[in-house]
Amino acid sequence: MAQRAVVAVLFLLSGGSYLMPLAAQTPKVCNCIDASDFGGCTIKVPVNYPGLSRSCARENADNCGFPGSAALVSGNISGRDVFFVYIADLFNGFTFRYDLKPTGGALDSSVVPSVFISPEGSRSTTGLAFNPVNNLLYWAIEDRLISTNLNLQAFHLQGTVELDVLQTKLGLPQRGSLGGIAYHELNHTFWGVDIVNDLYFEFDENGKLILEDGQPVYFESPARSTYGGGAYGNGITYVPLGGAAYFDIPVGTLTDQGVSRVMRVRAANGGEGSSAFRVGDPVGLTYEIKSVVGNYDFISGILYLPSTCGPENHTEIVLNIATPGTTGSSKIYQFAVDDPKTAGLSLFTADAVGNSVRLTWKAPLPYGTLEFSRRQVDSTRPAEVIATFNAPATDPTEFLDPSVADGLYDYAAKVTPPAPNPRKIPDQKQRVVVGLGRVVAHASFLNGTRPTDLDPFAITYIGSRGKILVADRQTGFAHLFLPDLTPAEVLKGPLGASSLKGLTRGVAWDSTTDSLLWVLELSGQSFVQRTTLAGVLQGTRQAIRMPVQACQARSTPADPCPPVLHIPLIQDVSYDPFRKEFWGIDRANMVAYSFDGAGLLTGKSVTFQLPVPRTPDGLFGGAVAVRESTASKLVLDYTVGTIAEGGAGALARISYVRSGDDLAAPGVEDPTLDLRSIVETMEIGGLVTVDLKDEGTDVTENFEYVVGTDSLTIYKLRMESGIKARDFRRGDVNNDGGAPNISDPIYILDKEFKGGPDYPCEDAADLNDDGDVDITDAIHLFSYLFLSGPPPAKPFPDCGKDFAGLGCDAFTCL
Predict the structure, then answer these.
(1) Which residue(s) pair with 640 in the sheet?
(2) Which long-range contacts (CB under 8 A, 24 or more apart) does 716-720 make?
(3) How far apart (Å, rounded) are the C-alpha atoms in residues 657 and 601?
(4) Residue among 150, 207, 219 nearest 178 (CA)
(5) Beta pairing, strands 601-607 & 591-595
(6) How far does CA 463 lie from the centroid of its chain?
(7) pLDDT tens-digit series, residues 725-763
(8) The whole model's pTM is what?
(9) How large is the greatest C-alpha to C-alpha distance in the chain, in angstroms?
(10) Residue 650 and residue 711: Cα distance in Å, rounded?
C-alpha cells in the first residue's frame, strides 16, 4: 500500500505519465558485434535506480530494479522512425523506455531511459507486448490484458485471459497463472506462458483462447521432464526470420533450479511428411546463459531485437531479477542471436533399450559434419566419439549405441555448418540412464478428487493388497497406486481432515499385523499412530522415545552409544519383517535407528556413522527402505548427499553385518544412483524397495519407488542390472585375496615395462578408474601405500562391481 501511494504522488508531481530521464547506466562490457555466434554475450547493464522511489531506496538502495518483461516498438509510427525498447518493472510500478537510433543499437551507457508509470501501478506486470496493427502496448497484469498507447495513456481493460477455460479444456490439475506474452505478427494473435502448468498458449486481444477443433492451441515447455514434473520459464518473444516464424523462450529443468538456457522453437505449423513440424517443435538453436554471463538469479523476460547492429546482426535482451535482499543488482543482458544460416538438430533423442542406447534426430538444414559423443556423468574419462556423419543428403537419422554399461550418460550432438560458414552452433545434449536405475514407469500424484494434495512425501508398499501408498505431507491424505502406477483410490490418514496441525512424515506397512504405522510431526515432536489399511485409527498416538540408558548399559569404550542431542524428528520409516521392528531416519540427530510400534528404541540398532562411507557432512535426505534383513545381514536404501551438494539427491544401498542387536560399521555402499539426474527433480521424498514378478513369468525383479515432491510425480526404477559384472577389489592386482601391498604396484610395472604376466582382472589394476592401465596406476597405488595418498577408486576396500570398467577375467573375493 505504501509503495502504491508513492507511485501516485510521483504521477501527480510529474503532471502525467512521463517522468524525467535517469542518470547514465554502468558502462557496457563489450560492443554490439563482438560476438556473432548464436548466443554470444554483447552487453550486461546493471539496473539501479536509486532515488526513483523513496520506498524502493529505503528497502534496498543498491537494488531498486526488478525488470519483468519487455516490448519492442520499431518502424515508422506517426511519421517518425522509432526504435523503442520498453522494460516494465515487475514490482515497483514503473516502466523504462530506451530510445535507440532507428536502426537499433545496444543498451549501453549512452542510452538513458525515460520513466513512465505502469498501468495498475505496482501490481505485478508479468508480460508486455506491442501490436503494430493498432500501435498499442498490451500488458499482462495479474491475468488481465490491458492496452495503452505508447505514452502509457488511453488505458483500456481488454479482458481477462481465459486461464479457467484453458484448465477445463486441457484437463489441467491446477488453474494457471499468466507470465510473459508476445504478439504473433503472422496470426495477429497473442501467445502467453502459463507459469503454473508450463504451457505456452494462443489468445486474442481480449484474452479469449484461440481454439482448433474445440481445443486450445498450445505447446508444453520443452524443458519439462520426460518422466513428468515441471519446468522453469516465464518469458516468450516472437522471432520473424527468413520468412519463417519462431519463438525464443527461456527455460530450465527442475534440476537446473531456474532458467538455464534460451531455446528457439517453431511458431507455426509447416512442412510435409517426415519434414513436417508443429508449433513448439525445437529448431535446434539453443544458447546457455551461465556459460556466457556467469552467475545470475531469476530470468524474468526476453525480447528479440531484429537488425540491432545491421541487417544481419540480431540481438536479444534477457532480463534478470536479483534476489531481493542480496547485494547483487538486477541486470539486462544482451545476446547476439545472428542467423547462423544453418541449424542444429530439430529433434534429438537418446533412449535406453536394454543396455543399448538409440539416438534419433532430424536435421532441418544441411550441415558440414554431425558428430555424436558419449560421456559417463561424474566419470574422469573423457567423452568418446561414437559416430560421425558428413553427407546430410544420405546420412541416417538413427543410430544404435550397443552394449553400454550400466550408468548415467550424457550424449552430445555437435553440428558444424557447411563451409565457408564460420559460425559456431551450440551443442545439444541428452541425458539417459542405462540399465540399473532406469525409470520404467511414472505417474502424477495429482488426483481430481483431492485437488489440495500437492505435497507428496511418504511412501510404502502394501503387500497384502499389492498397492503403493503415497501420503501427502501437508493434508495427511494418501493416494494408492497399482504396481504399474495406475492410480487407484484415495485414503484418509491419521491427519487427513483432522483438526490437528501437523505433518505426515512417514508411513510403513507392517506385514506382521497387516496394518499401517504412520509417523506424524506435531508441535516439533514425532509420534507413531497405527491404522488399519482403510485408515481407521488403532490405539492411541505414542511419542517416539529414545531410552538411551539401555544402550549405555551395554556400551563399551570401544563401542559407545551415539550421542543423542535433540528430541528425535523422524523423517521416514520402513518395516523390517525379520526383526518385526521399524527403521527411521532422525533428521534432528542425523542418525538412523530401529524402534517398535510404540515408538521405543529396540536393542542397540543405532549408528551415527550412517550413511557410510560418506563425508562427515553427510546428510540423510529423509528416506529409508529395508531391502534385506537376516540374522547376519541388514541392507538399507537411503537418500543421501552432502551440504555441498545441496542435500540428499542420491540413492545409496548400504549393507551391514549384523551380530545380535549390533551393526558392524562401516557398511558397504553399492550401488549409488544420482536420483536427481535420473528423475529430474530436486526434492526427493520417501522411497520403498519392492520385489515384483514379471507378468506371466516366474522371474522376480527388484524395483525402487521414489517420490518426487517438487515434481508431484511417483517414479518406478528398475534396480536389476542388464549386465552381469564380476565382483572384484580394486588394488588387488595380483589377486592374492588380500589388501593391496607393495607386490601389487610392482605387478603393474612388471606387466607394462617387462612384458610380465597378464592381469587376472584388468579392472583391479585400473587404480584411478580412467579406463586404462599404465604407470599412473602404479604411482597411484605407491602413493596410497606409502604417502597417505588417495585410496583406489571403488570398489574398495570391499569387493563390488564396475559395470563400465575394463572387464575382469578372473577374481576371487575373500
Answers:
(1) 620, 650
(2) 716/439, 716/440, 716/441, 716/442, 716/483, 716/484, 716/485, 717/437, 717/438, 717/439, 717/440, 717/673, 717/678, 717/679, 718/435, 718/436, 718/437, 718/438, 718/440, 719/436, 719/437, 719/689, 720/436
(3) 20
(4) 207
(5) antiparallel
(6) 32
(7) 677 889 999 888 778 889 999 999 998 888 888 888 888
(8) 0.79
(9) 94
(10) 16
